[in-house]
Fold this sequence. Notes:
Number of strands: 0
Helix content: 55-70%
Shape: elongated
Strand content: under 5%
Largest sheet: none
Distance between the termini: 69 Å
Oligomer: single chain
Amino acid sequence: xxxxxxxxxCCAFATAWAGTAVPMAQNPETERRMAEISTELRCLVCxxxxxxxxxxDLAVDLRRxxxxxxxxxxxxxEILAYMVDRYGDFVRYxxxxxxxxxxxxxxxxxxLVVSLIALLQYLRRRSSNVDDLPLSNEDRRRAExxxxxxxxxxx
Length: 155
């Protein structure tokens, strides 16, 4: 009897636990175009996912806006231009190469080259500061004594 009551309560609250359904366009062609366009756009919340893959509220809203624009007759370039005008070039996974996006395109390469140059300079300075002094007889005897003591301790 207790199991029956528990199952009935679970069924009653199942709708509260269920997630909301993602709205889809009535036209499969609209949905296909929306999927293509949304893979070109970066989710501004996640930043490492496209809005097609993201489950963030903003991504859901952007997909809805894309559907509305497709249904109003806009082509893909117009929709992408609208998104760029609204959110900037960063919203695109492949922003155009222009003055304002040069840092996005070439910044990582410049940072890598500068880091390698700094590392090489550091290593050169470090190696030039190392003195190659020969061991004195006393230092040599101490080192040999340490080595022989370690050989005795090893199993």
